[in-house]
Design a protein that fits this description.
The protein is an alpha/beta fold. It has ten helices and eight strands. 42% of the residues lie in helices and 13% in strands. The protein starts with a helix and ends with a helix.
């Protein structure tokens, strides 16, 4: 069975650690751009209890421009191969590029995490040809323009309808429902009010019965509400991760693995009724 699918059967929140092998990510400023630093970061996250490593070679921060396919391949694929060889951990591909989906899964990735919901030409076919799980995310617009005055009549209903349609397209392409994960796309073409509305009504995204992945770690929402810069948003990130899990999230995508693992251990013990 697919490793991520097996982890989801454990019925506890899964921690996905962010590994940006880019020179321009919003939160870590290219700290893991070299393969050596990336692998050290993976080792640290594994020691802290991470479940999934999400490897991305194309920044999707607001205003980001697309990366040439060959450059994204050079950034991502060697790191995926090295992680699969050295660590017993599930690997996710944060990519919209069909060639990276195919080759990354061949090298050991278990999840395709696509912010564009397999909308690039050939992406549906590439994902369907693998045995990987697939995360379909909502985004209004593209990273280069998504925060240019995003508008919705009813953000919760529109995001839910988008995801329902994305699931239908995936199924029509041959990707079965048991391979799908959904992500409402916090911060991707949404204002802070939109994000709060989505979090408040997150359970409406679970109506399909599919697991939810939520990424709120260090997001602009936290900065706007607390006044904290990116490197001082741990408390806000932990609070939002816990609130998301309480509202049905199955996977939380985070930058600060160790503290998030501790929070989820506390929550899980409470839900289980005790320590054992």
């Amino acid at each position: 069975m697919n490793l991520v699918a097996s982890l989801l059967k454990m019925k506890r929140p899964l921690i996905m650690g962010v590994l940006n092998v880019t020179p321009d990510s919003f939160s870590d400023g290219g700290r893991f751009f070299s393969p050596e630093r990336a692998l050290k970061a993976v080792a640290a996250m594994v020691e802290q209890g991470v479940d999934i490593i999400d490897v991305g070679g194309e920044s999707t921060r607001p205003g980001a421009l697309p990366v040439p396919e060959s450059e994204e391949q050079d950034r991502v694929l060697p790191v995926v191969a090295s992680i699969a060889e050295r660590f017993d951990v599930a690997i996710s591909l944060d990519t919209s590029t069909p060639s990276i989906m195919r080759e990354g899964v061949r090298l050991g990735a278990s999840l395709i995490n696509d912010v564009r919901s397999l909308s690039r030409p050939g992406a549906l076919e590439a994902a369907a040809a693998t045995d990987a799980m697939v995360c379909l995310m909502h985004m209004q617009g593209e990273p280069s323009s998504m925060q240019d005055n995003p508008r919705y009549d009813d953000v919760v209903a529109e995001v839910r309808d988008y995801l329902v349609a994305a699931v239908r397209r995936a199924e029509e392409a041959g990707i079965t429902r048991d391979r799908l994960v959904l992500d409402p796309g916090f911060g991707f073409g949404k204002s802070s009010d939109h994000n709060l509305s989505l979090l408040r009504d997150l359970q409406q995204m679970t109506v399909s019965g599919l697991p939810l992945l939520v990424g709120l770690s260090r997001k602009r929402l936290i900065g706007e509400l607390t006044g904290r810069p990116v490197d001082q948003r741990l408390a806000g990130s932990l609070a939002l991760a816990l609130l998301a899990v309480q509202r049905g999230a199955a996977i939380v995508r985070v930058h600060d693995v160790g503290p998030t693992v501790d929070v989820m251990k506390m929550w899980s013990a409470l839900e289980a009724g005790g320590v054992n």
